[in-house]
Amino acid sequence: MSSRKRRFNQLDSRTRNSDKNEDSHVVNEEDEELLSPKRQAVESEDGSRHRSHDSEGFEDEEDDISPKTMNIPGKPASVGILQCVRVENFMCHRKLTVKLCSNVNFISGQNGSGKSAVLAAIQICLGAGARRTHRARQLGELVRKESSSGTARISVTIRNEGSDGFQPEKYGDSIIIERTLSRNGGGSYKLKNATTEKTISSNRKDLTALLDQLNIQVENPVAVLDQEEAKKFLTGKASDKYSFFTKATDLERLDRTYADVSDSIEELENNGKRVESSLSNVVDTVKRLKAEVEQFTQLEEWEDKISDTRRIQAWAALKEIHSDYEQAQAHHSMAEEKLIGRQKVYDELCAVASNDEGRTAKEEHLQALTRESEEASQLKRDAELALVKTKAPVRKYQREAKQVEKELGSAREMYAQSQKALQRAQQKAADDHQAKEQAQRLSDLEKHRQKVEELKDGVKRWQQEQSQHLQSYQELEPVVDQAKKRSNNVSKQVYAVQTKRNELKSSQGNAVAVYGGPKAAKLATAVQRMKQAGRWRGPVMGPIGMYVKVVNGKEEFAALAEFGLGNLLDRFIVTNDHDRQLFQKLRREMGCNRECNCFQTKENKRYQIRTCGIDGVETVASCLSIGNDLVFNVLVDQARIDSRALMKSLKHTEEILLQTNSLGRESIRGGDVIREIYNLPLGDVVSINKSGARNMRSNERPLKQIIGADTRAAVQEAEGELKQLEAELKEYKSQESASQKELQEAKQQWNKARQQLRNTNNKLEEIEEIAAKLQGEIDGFNNVEDTDFTELEDDVENCNQDVVALQEKLEAAEKSQEDLLPDIEQAKNKVNELAARNERVLSDLGKAEKDLIRLVTECGEHERKKTRAQQKIQVVQEKLPEIKNMLDERTENYHVALRQARLLQYRSEYAIAQKEKEADGETPDLTPEDPPDEVLEAIAIESPSKQAAYYEAKISRLRKKIVQEKERRNIQNITYEEALDRYTRARKDLQAKNNQLQTIKENVTDLYEDLGSRQKRWKRFRKHYIHMTKGTFDDILNLKGSSGSLEFDHNEKTLNLVVQKDNTNENSQNRDLKALSGGERSFTTLALLVAMGERLETPFRVMDEFDVFLDSIARKIALETLVEIALKLDHRQFIFITPQDLSSITPGKKLKIFKMKPPERSNAGSLSQQVLD
């Protein structure tokens, strides 16, 4: 049997038996919507669907009927009662605070005094709507009309003590619920901690959760009875009382919910019938699709044969290609071995000859640095001369400005004199009656004008001085900063050289101390001592510098390679936690801080590192000889010595290692090995980030060499360098002190000029104000004779024009000075830049001279032998490319054929595995992706016995046979996978509908059983509550010498009261309340109200005008009865609101009476109380 047929039969049998294995409780989305109302209602009481057996013991356990008691009887209430009610701009109250006691509270007052407003505030604050208060249609209508803000604020404080409190860790012992109302209809809630008055929540959901947990029922008329509900209850019919009773006991809501559940179950049944009627069409579709799938069984066997034959044909072709590949590989190996041997001889010669090339490079580098030093010095002198020339025009403009200032002073003096002449003439022409007074004013005005001109001249003068001093300050500030920077840099260099010199001195005669100073030497001695004592559990190596040497012939990179290692030469190496802890203890004993730390690693074989394979590129690992494997591995891990390249210059790096692609992004040749590039002569580091951008990290400190250095010569060099640096430091300190002094003087002069300018401006404003006042007085006189002052006025105008012209000339000179300032600043920056460059070049020059002297002694002459060896290499190299091309071509062909064969092998094995999965009942993956190379490489190579042409002919015959069979069966337009997929989906659809139908039937049965059980429990609950209410009703009537009972008619939904006026005389029994007096009828109804509330476990009850229809005797008995009952229930809180006289009630610790103030009358004489029409 073919795999396709076997797969189809297994699918068919598996689908037929799926009804037994599938979960029978799967319901589609439509059924879930029908079940959701039922589940919400049925699960609302006990939280589970199948819990009908819980009601079996209901009659035996009466305590289960009663709600949970929060406040324990006999003790004052600890949670849920009202402590305080505050209102502001609410109804008729501008501001009111009512502090309630924990047991009995009476609120009394005249009509319109705002008693019911307290009840309305409690209702609104605890979540009720405006209509529930029967005082307004919208919340905005409850805002006090006289309120200017248009908002009202009401709050209720609730006790929250004990274990039953609502989130006491957040809200504390008391909770403030505050609600804000706006006249335009807006509003908000706030739940606060009463102790800290901090707002904890503003979410209505939290208020609902609080009311649920504390069992506060503001919508229940028994818990909160307002005037309208009281009137309706006291005067209502039997049906109204029955409705009131079911609503107060929540029986009405449960009955309504059960009716909705019953409707949902019926809808679910109808849905099941619709599903059942649609099954016949689905069965026919499955049969038709099954017949289509069976036609592909024979074709699949032939397709499997083609796939297997193609796989074998690929292995046969690979076998033929492999023979050619082996021949080319053998020929190439012989040529490479010959080239390697000759190259080895040539490399040995080049190892010595390369020193001569290094010497030439050093000489050229030294000459280049010498030329660069001379050029830098000349450029610095030229820049300083250019700076002097740039400053020359500024001095010229300053001299011109001073000359203009003198001329401006003379012009202003002439202007003042001409004004005086004009004023004298005008004064002389004044009338004799006013001459003296007008002359005095003109004289004063002239004095003030002169003073104004003097002050204006002073303002300009101080402005110029302030600008000059500010400019001087700004010019000196960068000079001081540069001097400080130079001093600090040289100080750091002095400290570094001193430290180096001291370490070198202390390490003379001690090789260990070179790499970490005296502490490292002591630590190494202690390590050896503990090693001899056998206290180490593994090898302890160090310091690392003791195991590192410079490779012969690569001394020019020694300092750069040491820089690439970082500060690791003084470190030690341990191999376990015990040795690390013991070593750290030893470090502390030796007084080590940051120095001489350790690395912990495992003992492994020496790492086999890769090389970049680029000529002329050295790495830290290739320039250093590290004999110890453990040290070598640590430096690879910690210092990455295999991935840090060393180059002679940045230019050399750009030519050899850096490359740019077509998008302009740079990369490093050999980037899989090389990550960073260190460049001579300064140690600048180049790296390329992921986005192809170059990162350049400059090294500001000179390179130093410790590995293989002469200690004595290094000490002498350090001392010479130290003397030079100390001299430079002394000079820089002197320059810094002088610059700082000039900067301080410029700042003082600037501050002084700024203060003088401020004082002069203030004085100028004062004098100008006085002059303007005098001018106004002078202009008021109209009796001056018409005298001709044209000539004098022309003189004044001409003088004024001269002043303006000179001022413009002065401003032009000042602007010219300001225009030259950027050029001067640029010239200064260039001088500073060239000075820094000159210092750096001189430092590099000294180092290059030392390197050249050391290199000269190592050079030799080996050109002849090297030339002969190179000629031999060229002979082999000329033939090698041809051999290599042939090998590459055959290698590529072999790998392509190998990958193709392995890929066909993998797909064949994958197809077989998928068929086995399908046979085991799992879902197959019919579209596999190409596997990774690791998976393909793991497939073994096969060797077929026949050639590839044989298998190719076999594949052609099978393909032709398949085409003929498809034409005969007319199945050209559909594949087997498509037919099987359509059949599978149809079977799953049939299976899903069967499961859905079974689930609906089971759920309908369970739901009807559950609903019936709950309805029985509801009736027992109703019976129990009626029994308790009857008993309490009779007990209350006995207090008045009467008795009574309650008659419930559940079919007619009526509640009738039976009253016996004299409980000792059965003849006084009366079923018609109309036969009773108004007071007796009201007292009886009130007794019923109290009886219903007796079983209500709400922490507080509020009753508004409950005694409205009682006569005085009945009212007294009712009040005494209510007080007596309330005082006995000291774990409950009662709030009674009445307009009647309460003089018969005595306040006490448990009873408190609030007397409201009489209402204020409006202008029309009506009350200002706000009520709903």
Structure description:
By secondary structure, the chain is α/β, with parallel strands linked by helices. It has 26 helices and 25 strands. The strands form seven sheets. The chain has a six-stranded antiparallel sheet. The protein is flat and about 150 Å long. The model is unreliable at 17-67, 782-786 and 1164-1173 (pLDDT under 50).
Q: What would you report as the Rg, rounded to the nearest angstrom?
A: 55 Å
Strand order of the largest sheet: 2-1-4-5-6-7
Unreliable spans = 17-67, 782-786, 1164-1173
Distance between the termini: 91 Å
Care to give the gist of this entry?
By secondary structure, this protein is an alpha/beta fold.
What keyword list fits this structure?
about 1150 residues; six-stranded antiparallel β-sheet; alpha/beta; flat; five-stranded parallel β-sheet
